[in-house]
């Protein structure tokens, strides 16, 4: 095992790798509770989605470790799961949405195998990539506030502040405070710990029945049968091309950014700032997305939380193997997931939103030709309730303002194509 993972070459050992793997698991295990909570709003079975989420994360993370020998972990991506549930599935049904995820995985696979992903990456400016991340952050934070009952519908102004004295919103505010304090104190696994502590508070408040024995916490995983192979590719044909493109776009740049960020932290980047074996890593991501769609979960992507394990000294794929095994062991926590109320997972969405909005710091707001397209991308995602629409507005605005400012040479030719596709998305949507 030491020879396979090259512990000596990477100056690590078995104990360090196990500790790193456990740390990564702790920091991203919140997805076990959050993802089913989001996807079940579409009519998908909560327990089945939890099982699918865990299996997809476990096996894909193990595959990453074995194929690349990198300490990167994967799971259903935040933001993309909200796009899946609240935009695509809401309009076309979750079976069609799973089909869209599967097709996006095939496209991602082709881009990674052929190496075309590097050209795609070069075409889109940093400002738009950062705006997409920030916009998704606002979008999922808005969803979290709605799920908490902190923000509610109100006809005169569309939305307004909810009644914070109601038990549901009050519980979410308590949960938000708990996670914020833990994050401020830099506690490992702050989001997961916050969800569990908020769930305990819900027992005290009488919002949820408290467990009466180990059987309410541990048990056999829920069956996948309600969602397994239920993707409907024929129904997917009714989904506009740009929606599927948005799945691909967000997954590609989220994965690329995460791989480079975590790779830099681990010291893997070469002199030109590139990550060796990046195509293999993206191949695993694409396979995870396709496999996840088949068993019933949204887009699988590489998690930035992998840096937690890297910070603990994880340097090889064995870190990923440990993380993956711990995910699979979590299958037997299925009864516990049923005890977690929506108001306990809503704060997690808000906190993740905070982390994603930080991407705006990479946008040059002093340059209007960079700031304007980025702003449109960010603002339209939560207000139009669509990641796809936000991306489209950014793609259209960027070449226009660059050309009229005499900076047309800064626009990659592929971005003009993407702008045209975006216009078609708005004026010929189906």
What does this structure look like?
This protein has 430 residues and is mainly α. It has one domain. Helix content is 66%, strand content 3%. It has 20 helices and four strands. It has helices spanning 2-5, 14-28, 31-39, 46-68, 80-92, 94-114, 117-123, 126-148, 167-184, 190-204, 233-236, 241-266, 278-295, 306-311, 317-329, 334-337, 342-357, 368-383, 387-404, 413-427; strands at residues 74-76, 151-154, 158-161, 300-302. It has a two-stranded antiparallel ribbon. A two-stranded antiparallel ribbon has the order 2-3. The longest helix has 26 residues, at 241-266. The termini are far apart. The model has no long low-confidence stretch (mean pLDDT 87).
Kindly report the average pLDDT value.
Answer: 87
Radius of gyration from CA coordinates: 21 Å
- General shape: globular
Strand order of the largest sheet: 1-4
SSE succession: HHHHEHHHHEEHHHHHEHHHHHHH
Query: Span from first to last CA?
Result: 52 Å
Q: Number of helix segments?
A: 20
Please tag this protein with its features.
mainly alpha, globular, 20 helices, 430 residues
Please provide a brief summary of the model.
This protein has helices spanning 2-5, 14-28, 31-39, 46-68, 80-92, 94-114, 117-123, 126-148, 167-184, 190-204, 233-236, 241-266, 278-295, 306-311, 317-329, 334-337, 342-357, 368-383, 387-404, 413-427, and strands at 74-76, 151-154, 158-161, 300-302. The chain has 430 residues and is mainly α.
List the helices and strands and how they pair.
Layout: H1 2-5, H2 14-28, H3 31-39, H4 46-68, E1 74-76, H5 80-92, H6 94-114, H7 117-123, H8 126-148, E2 151-154, E3 158-161, H9 167-184, H10 190-204, H11 233-236, H12 241-266, H13 278-295, E4 300-302, H14 306-311, H15 317-329, H16 334-337, H17 342-357, H18 368-383, H19 387-404, H20 413-427
Antiparallel strand pairs: 1-4, 2-3
Helix pairs in contact: 2-15, 3-4, 4-13, 4-15, 5-6, 6-12, 6-13, 8-17, 8-18, 8-19, 9-10, 9-17, 10-17, 12-13, 12-19, 18-19, 19-20
